[in-house]
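User: Look at the shape:
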Amino acid sequence: MIKIKKITFENILLLWKEGLPNMSLEETSAMSCFKLMSHNEETEKYEQVDHYDLENQKFIPTFWGAFDDDKLIGCNSGHMTMNRLYRSRGLYVKEEYRGERIGQKLLLKTISQGYFEKAIAVWSYPRMEAWMTYHHVDFYLQGRTFSFEWDKTAGGTNTRCIRVFDHSELVKLETPQSEIKK
């Protein structure tokens, strides 16, 4: 029987090195959920660019492991980021254990931790191959205030996705302050 329990960064690091070779091997990530609009001087157009905030790395992470008896076979981690958005990162399940919904169970533990820490949503940056695992636990690519697209990177094709707990707070986060006061 597979059991999910808290583990340490040292425990998760072993699986990350094995299964996620392109992942940043830090306890937390500076990546932000939403991209920023930037004006490109050459094209005279606005484009979305990734946003990184070192403040995101000041939050305390939680690490989860999936165990088959005493053998660590899967993991995920999470930590709060700015604006009460909880980041899920580093989901990995050993290949011989895939298809048993272990990834979904790890995500649900991370989602529960985000809810416990009073996040307004949980977000992640999964690879295309893992998307259905996220979709099955109610992560979305589009909503009232967001529309995420797939990004091709050296490590593969990824997208941001989000599971919202409090839509009204997320709307406030995405609405310019001048419009909120009206």
Summary: The CA atoms of residues 88 and 128 lie 16 Å apart. The first strand starts at residue 2 and ends at 7.
